[in-house]
Amino acid sequence: MNVSILGTGYVGLTTGACLAFLGHNVTCVDADHEKIAVLERGGVPFYEPHLAELLADAHPNLCFTSEYAEAIPPAQVIFIAVGTPPGKDGAPDLRYLEAAAHGIGKHLTGEFAVVVNKSTVPIGSGNWVGSLVRDKACEKAKGRFAVASNPEFLREGTALHDSLYPDRVVIGADEEQTAEVLYTLYRPILDQTFQAPPYLPRPEELGAVPLISTDLASAELIKYAANAFLALKISYINEVGQLSEKVGADIAQVAKGIGLDARIGTRFLQAGIGWGGSCFGKDTAALIATASEYGLEMPIVKAAREINRRQRDRVVEKLLSELKILKGRTIGLLGLAFKPHTDDLREAPALDIARKLIERGARVKAHDPVAMDRFRKESESNGRLAEVFCCETPEDVAREADALVLVTEWPQYRELDWEPLAQIMHTAIVLDGRHALDRTRLTRAGFRYVGIAC
Ligand SMILES: NC(=O)c1ccc[n+]([C@@H]2O[C@H](COP(=O)([O-])OP(=O)(O)OC[C@H]3O[C@@H](n4cnc5c(N)ncnc54)[C@H](O)[C@@H]3O)[C@@H](O)[C@H]2O)c1
To answer: How far apart, in whole angstroms, are the C-alpha atoms of residue 171 and residue 179?
Structure first.
């Protein structure tokens, strides 16, 4: 099928690469000319494991442009995958979505096309996008398109795996004919009939992928409700973690004991600094904003957000309790990205923690295996974050530091040679913000090990 994808960010480019790999003709569009230039040269504008390889394999079926006039007329399916960043009062800022919908409307030719919201959008956006497209469409094209919702559940760092081998595909459409276009598009994924790329092997246990075919509003709500639930799970274990610390329990064992109940599951039950990233904060805020339009409060979701906010304060409190004074101390952060295997810094806990420490007079050094360049660029004109001293290696972070904080659980930090690090620090304290380090090993290496919930 001929597919156009608007937005070549984490979601749009992943979707484009996967669909082109499956044999569809895909045009990826971005308003950012620089991004398109990078892609045309065979580069990848952000870090995502195996994306460069998949783009290379899918190359014959892929093209890149900034021109809607080129991308829209031949497309049978048009995905909107532009950003929906947080706006005022918790509601997302929909200006990119609006521009994309207008751009589609202007260039529809009258051949039937399905416009698919893949961006995470407030409930009711399907209808809204439909009206925006219609407003700009020529008379011939006005009735010749339909809108569907196909929320995305990929996780950065495993985005390609999640897209080729999803837990489920959700399609929301108000007419069966519209949904059928998307069943056809996704058939190789639903039936798992494609040949898996060698660097992304199919999980052995995977059978057919469940399809949830529903109406527009339900598909839109599924996305928000799923993200809010994952956020709740993390905040729940962090709340239990606070009690665990008081009563002297081992939160890792508690989480395992809870999670092995099949009704609960072990994932998203790691106590620590809490969630970051571009989705959970924004989507929980959007869910609360939508609910308030209907006179509903969403107290559980609000509490999850508040607990998450407090977890970042706890890092500062823990450091204060260890060092007594933060003014003039040097704190080293291991990890800047909001999670391992990505360079995405949006809402990353490290940024918030760095800011709080600098405000208290500490000097902050930081390292990240892949996000350093992005951090340098984005922090340049970002208030206090410009004061963070970027280090090339974890050793540089540790040298003369009063404490290290593991903020992002990159696997390479687990494997560090800790003994020499302890020797070059001013005081060998490590705050394990992710419960990822081996307390016994660190203690043997000469560190005072401090956990977040222990
Ligand atoms: N990143 C994730 O892990 C993830 C997961 C699931 C869902 N989502 C949702 O998917 C959407 C996209 O997220 P993302 O992380 O890929 O965003 P992103 O910021 O990485 O990418 C968005 C891209 O859209 C481009 N763009 C903006 N306006 C445009 C326009 N009018 N036409 C063409 N391109 C335009 C931007 O230049 C940018 O490259 C958001 O709604 C997000 O909530 C994200």
So the answer is: 7
